């Protein structure tokens, strides 16, 4: 069952990446078209003032950063949310006692991490940084 679910996961993830890339490329192309139509309507002095290379760089960088977010970061964020939730559900479906035995240490570790990263730690880090320089 584990191997089957792993194969299914890989196929679904590959499909999601394909769909996200296709939509991201379409969004980036539409953004470029809209930006270039808008720039074409601007007065000619605008391009002389900023420089055509700078305008081209701005258009290219903004659309490519949007493509990167939509094609890569968004599916990874969805996976980061769905995977732990799915694992917890599967633990409880397998055996609720086993699921509970696994959840208790996870909850305790989150409490420990949050206590270490609280306001006192921020204050201690500020003191440390002040002592360095």
Number of helical stretches of at least 4 residues: 5
Cα-based radius of gyration, to the nearest Å: 24 Å
- Poorly predicted segments: none
The largest sheet, given as strand count, sense and whether it forms a barrel, is:
none
Distance between the termini: 57 Å
What does this structure look like?
The protein is mainly α and 133 residues long. The chain has 2 domains: 2-94, no CATH class; 96-133. The protein is 94% helix and 0% strand. It has helices at residues 2-41, 44-50, 52-94, 96-116, 119-132. Helix 3 (52-94) crosses helix 4. The chain is flat, with a radius of gyration of 24 Å. The N and C termini lie far apart (57 Å). The mean pLDDT is 87.
Keywords:
133 residues, mainly alpha, 94% helix
Concise overview:
The chain has 133 residues and is an all-alpha fold.
Describe the protein's topology.
Elements: H1 2-41, H2 44-50, H3 52-94, H4 96-116, H5 119-132
Helix pairs in contact: 1-3, 3-4
């Amino acid at each position: 069952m584990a191997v089957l679910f792993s194969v299914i996961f890989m196929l679904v993830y590959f499909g999601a990446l394909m769909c996200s890339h296709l939509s991201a490329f379409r969004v980036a192309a539409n953004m470029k078209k809209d930006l270039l139509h808008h720039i074409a309507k601007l007065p000619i002095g605008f391009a002389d003032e900023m420089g055509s290379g700078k305008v081209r760089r701005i258009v290219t960088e903004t659309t490519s950063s949007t493509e990167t977010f939509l094609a890569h970061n968004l599916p990874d964020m969805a996976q980061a949310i769905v995977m732990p939730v799915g694992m917890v559900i599967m633990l409880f479906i397998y055996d609720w006692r086993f699921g509970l035995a696994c959840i208790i240490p996870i909850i305790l570790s989150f409490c420990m991490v949050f206590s270490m990263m609280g306001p006192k730690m921020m204050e201690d880090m500020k003191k440390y940084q002040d002592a360095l320089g």
